[in-house]
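Why does residue order matter? Because the sequence determines the fold. Keep that principle in mind as you read this record.
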Amino acid sequence: MFLVLDLISDLLYFPIWWYGAGLKKRCLFVIKKINNGYRNLALKILMRNLFKPMYGEYNWQGRLISFFARLVILFWRTLEMLVWILLLLGLLLIWLLLPIFIINQILILI
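Structure:
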């Protein structure tokens, strides 16, 4: 009898956990992964050093080449970061819609 009551209480508590504490954990995970991606791609360092010459080349040609080289790298890494954010938000959306999809599929079978 205890097993049946435990199963029923788990089934009733599942949506509350999924959209409550579980969603909070997933959101914190997504934020942590976005911050890690930002740090791993070194976007802050690239933006800070955008106008500094590379390899100590302080003439105007060296500064110009360094600026455009860093600009291309910054553009590429920003694009990578955008794709990473979209992927993580897509996974979070799947987390939100998965129980609804499963319940819909079960109701279709009935």
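Residues 53 and 60 are 9 Å apart (CA to CA).
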